[in-house]
Amino acid sequence: MTQAFLARLTQSKGRQGLWTLPLLIAIVISVYLGLRTDQFLGSENLFNLIAQAMPLVITAIGQMFVVVVGGLDLSVGSLISFTTAILALDAPGYVTIPAVFLFAVLVGLSNGLVITRLNVHPIIATLAMQYIILGITRILRPVSGGTVPDIVIQSVGGSLFGVPMPVFWGIAVVLVAWKLLHGSRFGLHLFAIGGGVANGTPDAARNFGVPDRRNILLAYVACSCFAALAGVFLAGRIVSGDPNVGLLFELDAITAVAVGGTQLSGGIGSLQGTVIGALVLALLSNGMNLTNVSPFIQTAIKGGLLLLVVGLQTRKKIGL
Amino acid sequence: MSVIVKHPFLQRLLRVPPAYYVFAILLITLWIARPHMLNANIMGIFIRQVAPLGVLVLAQLLVMRVKSIDLSGGGIILLVNYVISSGIFPGASMPFFIGLSLAIGTAIGLFNGWMIGKRRVSAVIVTLAVSIILVGFVQYLSSGKPPGDVPSYLNDIYNIKWGPAPVPVLFWFALTVAMALFLSKTVFGRYVTSVGENPEAAHFSGVPVERTVILAHTLAGFIAAVAALVQTASIAVGSVRVGLDLPILAVAATILGGVVFGRGEGGVWGPFFGVLSFALLFVVMTTFGIDDPGKLIAQGLIILLAAIFYGIRTSRSN
After folding, report:
1. What stretch of H or E contains A163?
2. Predicted TM-score (pTM) of this structure
3. Where do the H-state alpha helices sit in A69-203?
């Protein structure tokens, strides 16, 4: 009986994956925190929570694009640090902001090309990229410092019609991602490719006329661009460049994606799940901060959560 | 282009693991630019520094041969270092510490293997998560501060020299020989090869695929604990940051040595030279005044180029 119930909770048949379970978790955490602490339900803490969660929400959405095709991008953390370092160079915003996205496109292109054309495993390719970008970032800015252009600070810290800016960021990002993932041929193709990869037939989508290499390439470009966007947001929050701000961010992003019900083997996932997954992580951090849990044990708990969610997903392949 | 690439001589050259080329190039660079660095004493010191990495690479190549990966080495090294240096077992003897460390490593390896082989979870995710949990746990226990000192006998053993050769290097060499024999002479070694070549074919030929993967990971955990002991002996103090970059370096050295996810042409000695290449790389970069960011970039480029080197070959054979 319990086993059947567990199976129902952890195995979904749809393409959207299992996103109702994380929603339930998020609600449970919220109710618990609302009853347990006085600060949690204050509007100040809630808006703060949205601002805290936003970089992870953006990065996780980007990460989801590559996870859906059965890939993984470990270079997003370094790219976020790099973005803040570039923005904190003493150059005007109309130069640095386009430069940041140009570089993100280049990173995505080189990740995608190395993976699709040169046949390198995504984990190895993006791991190498992570090191290269981290090295460049540390040359640019060995320790945190510098100031970010005013326009970035204003667009993150300000408010419009009495609503803090991060809310608008969230709406915009979700709309764009929704259009790409669930409202375009590109998104449909990504799910088709991923479905084949997950079932051990990576050529299936190509045999049905889906240009797989080009779409996978674009997925990596999208992932890098979302990471750069998260970097811009973070730079606006911390107001300076920090070579370590994105450290281990890729793991948080992967955890959020996995918590949201997206299968890491590819083909199954949903945008709402990923957003909810990121919110669950943010709620956990927020709650543990409010209840004074040691930051070191918080890291361990996040690792445990990642292990638990991926442990519940079953797949055929052994190994990587 | 393809005519040149298909030439038998070039095909032969492409089959040599890149580690040997990198090693030769670095040796020649050093010989031309800084000939005085090439004496046994200086080289011994540099090679001794990579002995923990060399031991960890043996674990990495074992799991990479069965198309898996182990990134939990950093967490194991940190935990073993904490157990030995924090003084939670006051006055314990050396065999106790060694036994406890090996037991910890083996248990973690078994857990990794069970999650990967039985539960079929992605190896990257499992071992990374395990590493994060261990690191967070150790940092919590030590409140982020370095714990204490390591018993002096460990560092004494580390500093012994046998002729010109330091004991840790000899130990690493002996372990590598043992691993080479283990993989080529035992049934388990054959299983590892067949699972790496094609897990499905291995399964239908009666090879216990799950058990092989689990055992490979358990052994890898054991070897990671050995690497942790060598590393702890080398730094001689407790630390909350030691060894965190070793798993990635181990992956890089293994790929450089010609062992890439199931493909084992490099054997055990390819990765061995991969580690030596890293030792030389650090010497060369230090003598040319390249600092840490430059080293990160070089590491990344080496991983990428070595992986591309293999990627091109597999894409052609398909």
Report:
1. strand A163-164
2. 0.86
3. 76-87, 93-116, 122-140, 150-157, 165-182, 185-198
Which of A114, A250, A318, A320 would best serve as a mutation to test chain B binding (most B beta carbons within 10 A)?
Answer: A318
Size of interface A-B (CB pairs under 8 A): 163
**Residue with tokens 């989801």, as numbered in its chain:** A64
**CA A213/CA A215 separation, integer angstroms:** 5
pLDDT in tens, B192-243: 999 988 888 999 999 999 999 999 999 999 999 999 999 998 887 777 777 7
Count of other CB atoms within 10 angstroms of residue A191 = 20
Question: Residue A217 corresponds to which tokens in the numbers above?
Answer: 């390439």
Rounded to whole angstroms, the Cα distance separating B253 from B270 reads 9
**A60, A52, A126, A140: which is closest to A96 by C-alpha?**
A140
Instruction: Quote ipTM for the complex.
Output: 0.81
Start-end of H helices in B142-186: 152-159, 167-185
Distance from the A121 Cα atom to the nearest Cα atom in chain B, whole angstroms: 8
Residues of chain B with Cβ-Cβ distance to A114 below 8 Å are: 304, 307-308, 311
pLDDT in tens, A116-132: 888 888 888 998 899 99
**AA letter at B153:** Y
The strand pairing partners of B13, in sequence order, are: none
